[in-house]
User: Fold this.
Amino acid sequence: MTRQILVSGGTSGIGAGIAQAFRDAGDAVTAVGLAGPDLDAAAKDPAFRGIDLKPLDVSDQAAVDAFAASLTQVDVLVNCAGMIRRMAEYEMPTFLKVLDVNLGGTMRLCLACKDLLAQSGRGGAIVNTASMLSFFGGPAVPAYSASKGGVMQLTKSLAVAWAKDGIRVNAVAPGWIATPLTQALQDDAARSQVILDRTPMARWGTPADVAKAVLFLASDQADFITGAILPVDGGYAAM
Ligand code: NAD
Assistant:
C-alpha cells in the first residue's frame, strides 16, 4: 500500500525539499503551509507536481482539528513549519507567537495525527525539525531557540510515550541550510563567511541534504530508532 506522507511547512524551503523527495520515492504526499505567497507560488511551480498542496496555519487549533478530521491515512508526519522573527522576539507577543508556531504547531499536528499514525500498517513515524539552536543559545533569536529546544525535548518525550502505540518519533537538526528563512544571512557576505568558517564541510546545506535524513528516519531502515535528534549540519555541532 502506498505510504501517505504529511509535511507541514511543505510549501517552501526544507519542507518543500522533503515533500518532493517523498514524492520522488513513490509516496503520496500532502504538503501544508500558510496561505499566501509561498503556497500560491508552489501551486504554480512544476517542482510540486503530484503533491497535494493545502493551506493550514498550525497555530490555529480549530483549523488543525478540521484538517485532521479530513484525513483517512497518515503513515509519516513531518513537522517542518517554522518561523523566525529575530530581535522582535524580545517582545512578548512575538515571543509567544514563535513558540506557538514552531513548538505548539508541532505538538498540535502530532496529537491530531496520532490515531492515524498508530493505525499505520507499517508503523507510524514522526520526524520533527529541530535546529542547531536546540543545542546552542541564540542571543538574537530567543523565541526561536526556546522553541527548537522545546522541539528536541518534545521529540524525546513523545518517542517514549508513543513507542507502545507503534509510533517512532525522531527529529532532524539542520545546520545552516539555504532557504528563504536564511536568505538575509546568505546575502550578507561577511556573515555568510562566518557560517562557512564555522562549518567543517564549508558549504551551506540544501533542502535535499535534510530530506535524505528525513526519508531515512521515516523508513524501515530506522525501525529501531526513536527519540533521536540527528544533526544534518556538515559537522557544525561537532566543532
Ligand atoms: P521557509 O521560510 O523556507 O519555510 C517555512 C515554511 O513554514 C513555509 O512553508 C511556511 O508556509 C510554513 N509556515 C510558517 N508559519 C506557518 C504556520 N503558522 N502554519 C503553517 N505553516 C507555516 O523556512 P525553512 O528554512 O525551510 O525552514 C523550515 C523548518 O526548518 C523550520 O522549522 C525551521 O525552523 C527549520 N530550520 C531551518 C534551518 C535553515 O537554516 N534554513 C535550520 C534549522 C532549522
